[in-house]
Amino acid sequence: MINLIFEIACICAGILLAITALDRLDGKSNFFNNIAAKLKPFNAVIGFATLIIGIIYILKIECIIFGVVGIACGLLLLPQQLTKIPGIGNSLLKASNWLMPFKVIVGDAALILGVLGLFNMNPFC
């Protein structure tokens, strides 16, 4: 069950993070923009899901790449909420700012790994 939640969260995070690249694929239909607009209110929920479950996946040695992508998605989706965490909030914000140039790459990776995971074809977990 946690696998399915993580895969769906990664797909949603991938769409939110890689919307600039995905927008070029759909032409004038605005398919991905419509999906991203519907997902935007759930940005924090998706970010926390990918971050927390990504940390859990890091503990499984065969799922480490999937976990790292999930953590990166969580850091990129939650920059404002990360500062509220006492003790490590500023460090997490710095990590989020450092990852920002790679936002589309992380989003594409999350989208691909999430879709592959839904079809049980994920080579990294």
From TrEMBL:
Membrane-spanning parts: 6-25, 45-78, 98-119
Keyword terms, alphabetized: Membrane, Transmembrane, Transmembrane helix
Record's protein name: Uncharacterized protein
Annotated source species: Aquaticitalea lipolytica
Lineage of source species: Bacteria, Pseudomonadati, Bacteroidota, Flavobacteriia, Flavobacteriales
